[in-house]
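Sanity check

After download, print the first record. It should look like this:
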Amino acid sequence: TKVQLGVQSLDDEILARNKRGHTVAATRRAMRLLRLAGFKIVVHWMPNLLGATPESDEADFRRLWDDPALRPDELKIYPTALLRDTELYAHWQRGEYRPYDEETLVELLARCKSTIPPYCRVNRLMRDIPAPNIVAGVKKSNLRQIVRRRMAQEGLVCRCIRCREVRGSTVAPESLRLSRLEYATDGTREWFLSYVTPDDRLAGFLRLSLPQAAPPLAELDGAAVVREVHVYGPALELGDRQEGYAQHAGLGTRLLDEARRIARQAGYRHLAVIAAVGTRPYYRERGFTLGRWYMHRDLAPVRESSQED
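Expected structure tokens:
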């Protein structure tokens, strides 16, 4: 239900110089098809590639959000690592490539993280490469913490999903409010529905796609698509409950109810969910039935939500 794309750059010249073997147009096409099919999209992005500068990297990163054909759900930021016996290493030996120093990279990433919209989750900020293998450049494995400290010093805030998750914390369900964020992509209107605490921590969210183009699969004809439902809390044995945890406040059901309401109001005939095998029982308990590839529920009337943004 999730596809990771090695996008790396949104500049065709940089992609060609680094022999990536694809273009920005190919990235756009891939993301359009994946979103129309209901997949979650994880983009890998690499600053400090051959030919890039801190200024061009910052502009490149902003294109991820400014271009409706992009706007990924999750992100892995992998600063380029200079390794021995690679083509990039040969460029470095000839003086044609220089890795960013720590100050440059941390400042760049701090500015980039402050622009990330609340519907995206930053999964990684550094690739797991042993420091002795890195010839030059930043070798610290705790780069995320260093960037976070820099942002705090400069008064910058990251509103990505990971930075706002309640995780295992207890929450008061009555304090949560339903936030609705709508944004356009190439081929869909997206709704990011979330329950947030008074201090903007994220207790749960749902990604709803309203296709504006023909679906890639006949099964999705006339369907709005739930691409993800995630509610935070500890792992428990089936049937166990712990008061105050978001997972046991019925947030998933409430989010699905709101998704059904929005989809029905927009004129869709049914709601489809791209569900892993292990999550299918959850959706069956909520009125969904299995089609060939997706879980489905007809869009009967649903109750109005009383908590909204």
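If your output differs, re-run the checksum step. Summary of this record's structure: The longest strand covers residues 202-211.
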